[in-house]
Specification:
GO terms for molecular function: DNA binding; DNA ligase (NAD+) activity; metal ion binding. The structure is a single chain. The chain has 25 helices and 24 strands. The protein is of the alpha+beta class and about 700 residues long. The chain has 6 domains: about 80 residues, Helix Hairpins (Orthogonal Bundle), CATH 1.10.287; about 240 residues, DNA ligase/mRNA capping enzyme (D-amino Acid Aminotransferase, Chain A, domain 1, 2-Layer Sandwich), CATH 3.30.470; about 80 residues, Beta Barrel (OB fold (Dihydrolipoamide Acetyltransferase, E2P)), CATH 2.40.50.140; about 70 residues, 5' to 3' exonuclease, C-terminal subdomain (DNA polymerase, domain 1); about 80 residues, 5' to 3' exonuclease, C-terminal subdomain (DNA polymerase, domain 1), CATH 1.10.150; about 70 residues, 3-Layer(aba) Sandwich (Rossmann fold), CATH 3.40.50.10190. Strands 2-11-10-3-9 form a 5-stranded mixed β-sheet. The protein has a 5-stranded antiparallel β-sheet with strand order 14-13-12-16-17. Strands 5-4-7-8 form a 4-stranded antiparallel β-sheet. A hairpin with a 2-residue loop joins strand 4 and strand 5. Helix 2 packs antiparallel against helix 3.
């Protein structure tokens, strides 16, 4: 609890006394007291959902505070509840970089998946630890919008959306309007000077209904579901509207925490459960212990708790689409580590998706940028988990045959993970005999070229590189955010310029006739100038983006970075053999073959020369170069962490000497740590390192090895 029973009694009585005493004197002490009282009542209302005052009484206190602040503006403090909402409208949203990546979660659907998850964890852990029973923290997977909060010196200084996981839209003004997000929190109590938190902004189901009732009365369009209302609300330009929608925020993760010396202090907590207890103590809204979240001693208990919540999900006040299962011990989390996509120590247990029946009316065939032919079922529109679904991918011919789907079938449709719609099966009992088999085409639906199905693949492909559909899709991919990231150059522009004869291939993106574009309906001089500016800026993108933008099969953005790091010029890839490519980290046989074949093509080689002549960067930038230390010496390429008080030098000086010797300064204890250098009063890091079998050095031993005396 944030407040003791006695403190809460006193705060309530003092609130009543001040209400009876109005108007209050204009004094700094009175203003500070009102701030504390209102902050307490907001916590009771928005976090605990157990208000002590009526709405009217709360409003009276709030108005009194506002009156006093207007009379004495020198005493308007940034953590005052009146400062949650700015009177200024936000013109736009800046993109900000998160302090640590905000990753996704791996999904599971049943007990078998959970057991597989635990077996993977045991394989990642040292043998002695893997034999122990593993405990898990299980909490609701809220269906809202992810938010990332940064506090510095106990003050909320920034809020952002999840974005792409590395960067998000800055929404600080809107976050300040969410009353369950403290504007000030006593992180100093835990020795934390700067911290990054992750949470979910959402709307209670009952409040969502009231919001829609108001919109209906005003003649406005209704929101489809609470999630859409919440995520859309985060990007409103007027924080007053954010407040009006009654958004709340659950906080569920502390991803980054340092002290005044910029040292990691997350290791003061032994478990994720401890972190949630800390956040609750500081006044954040977190899943309630032993009710909304559970500490499960084993994976069987996890399954039971997830099943319990799936059965009661409709009775819960908030929309949830599953439960999040996290390995509770933080030291074990560190050992298990992360992939580029998700933490290995956590998994989402997704509830059975909501299902509905519809009618399969016809099948259309789409051609992708690599020539892949994707059948798309057109079904009678149906409401599914708050969204109207009319198109469902059937993936390939094999899936159609496997499910025995027919035109005219009544089909069972669900949204996998409440996101991607899919046809589960035909409802065979409803067949009348008039249903027609689905005949997969033998020719491309766009260019009529004969389709081919490569050996070992399930996908039929159009192999005509001049197929209009492929050209369009390749260009759309090339200019997209994940590739060359040309702002404002969307699919509609690609189609328009292609139709008008301005685009025939990728290089034409940099040969556009801007004077002609300015004459098109809907294009003004300003919009054309912005497009030209964005296209010119993309010429300086790092080459990993260009590699990905080429749209090579089996090459994702992460693989593109691996390829970019091993060449000084993108054109050098034509000299790499399949064997050399296969030796690179995370490059498998299929990808190696695809890269080799692609860079041997005269068309790709000619395209790169054209792009170079048009001014595109084809050379490796400094940011893409792998950072390597010296190859010799006791600490060359070794990860070293310092803990405790050093006597001969400061910790910053020790890190400088380590880096000069080719070492790597680590931030926490993990199985990948090579050395822990301990000074006086070494704490929990020493114990963790000993448990993991890490090499321990005293300060004297560290200096001796630096000087080559051992």
């Amino acid at each position: 609890m944030r407040y003791s029973a006695q403190e809460q009694k006193e705060l309530f009585e003092r609130s009543k006394a001040l209400l009876a005493q109005k108007p209050l004197p204009t004094e700094e002490a009175v203003i500070q007291e009102l701030i504390a009282l209102i902050t307490y009542h907001e916590w009771r209302y928005y976090v605990l959902d157990q208000p002590l005052l009526s709405d009217y009484e709360y409003d009276q206190l709030f108005r009194e505070l506002k009156r006093l602040e207007e009379a004495a503006p020198q005493w308007v403090f940034p953590h005052s509840p009146t400062q949650r909402v700015s009177s200024d409208l936000t013109e736009g949203f800046l993109t900000v970089e998160h302090l640590t990546p905000t990753l996704s979660l791996e999904n599971s659907e049943n007990m078998e998946d959970l057991q597989d998850f635990e077996q993977r964890l045991r394989r990642l852990l040292p043998e002695d630890l893997a034999q122990n029973e593993l405990a898990y923290c299980v909490e609701p997977k809220f269906d809202g919008g992810t938010i990332v909060l940064v506090y510095e010196n106990d003050q909320l200084v920034r809020a952002a959306t999840r974005g792409n996981g590395e960067k998000g839209d800055e929404i600080t003004a809107n976050a300040r309007a969410i009353a369950s997000i403290p504007l000030q929190a006593n992180f100093s109590k835990y020795g934390i000077q700067k911290v990054e938190l992750r949470g979910e902004a959402l709307i209670r189901k009952d409040r969502f209904e009231r919001v829609n009732e108001k919109r209906a009365a005003a003649g406005e369009a209704l929101f489809a579901n609470p999630r859409n209302a919440a995520t859309g609300c985060l990007r409103l330009k007027d924080p007053q509207q954010v407040k009006a929608r009654s958004l709340e925020a659950f906080v569920y993760q502390m991803g980054f925490a340092v002290n005044a010396e910029a040292e990691n202090v997350l290791d003061q907590f032994e478990s994720h459960w401890d972190i949630l207890a800390c956040l609750a103590d500081l006044g954040f809204k977190v899943p309630t212990a032993d009710k909304e979240r559970a500490l499960c001693p084993n994976i069987a208990a996890v399954g039971d708790f997830c099943a319990q919540w799936e059965a009661q999900r409709e009775d819960y006040a908030y929309e949830i689409d599953g439960m999040v299962v996290k390995l509770n011990n933080l030291a074990l989390q560190e050992i298990c580590g992360y992939t580029n996509h998700h933490p290995r120590w956590a998994i989402a247990y997704k509830f059975t998706a909501k299902e509905a029946s519809s009618v399969l009316e016809t099948v259309e065939y789409q051609v992708g940028r690599t020539g892949a032919i994707t059948p798309v079922a057109k079904i009678r529109p149906v409401e599914l988990a708050g969204v109207t679904v009319s198109s469902v991918s059937l993936h390939n011919a094999e899936q159609i045959a496997e499910k025995d789907l027919r035109i005219g079938d009544h089909v069972l449709v669900k949204r996998a993970g409440d996101v991607i719609p899919q046809i589960v099966k035909p409802l065979e009992d409803l067949r009348t005999g008039e249903e027609q088999p689905i005949v997969f085409p033998s020719n491309c639906p766009v260019c009529d070229s004969l389709l081919e199905r490569p050996e070992g693949e399930a996908v039929w492909r159009c192999i005509n590189p001049d197929c209009e559909a492929q050209i369009l899709e390749r260009i759309k991919h090339f200019v997209s955010k994940g590739a060359m990231d040309i702002s404002g150059f969307g699919a509609a522009y690609v189609e328009k310029f292609y139709e008008e004869g301005l685009l025939h291939g990728l290089a034409d993106v940099y040969r556009l006739d801007y004077e002609k574009i300015a004459q098109f309906e809907g294009f003004g001089q300003r919009s054309v100038a912005k497009l030209q500016e964005a296209i010119e800026a993309s010429k300086n993108q790092p080459i990993f983006r260009l590699i990905y933008a080429l749209g090579l099969r089996h090459v994702g953005s992460g693989n593109a970075k691996i390829l970019a790091a091993v060449v000084s010029d993108i054109r050098e890839l034509k000299n790499w053999s399949i064997e050399q490519l296969s030796e690179l980290k995370d490059v498998g046989p299929k990808m190696a073959q695809s890269v080799y074949d692609s860079f041997q093509l005269p068309a790709i080689q000619q395209l790169l020369e054209e792009l170079g002549e048009l001014g595109l960067n084809l050379k490796q930038l400094e940011e893409e170069k792998p950072q390597e230390g010296p190859k010799e010496g006791p600490f060359a390429n070794k990860k070293v962490l310092f803990t405790g008080s050093l006597q001969e030098m400061s910790r910053s000086e020790a890190k400088k000497r380590l880096l000069a010797a080719g070492g790597i300064a680590a931030s926490s204890v993990s199985k990948n740590l090579d050395f822990l250098v301990v000074g006086e009063k070494a704490g929990s890091k020493l114990k963790k390192a000993q448990d993991l079998g890490i090499n321990i050095l005293t300060e004297a031993e560290f200096l001796a090895q630096l000087d080559g005396q051992s």
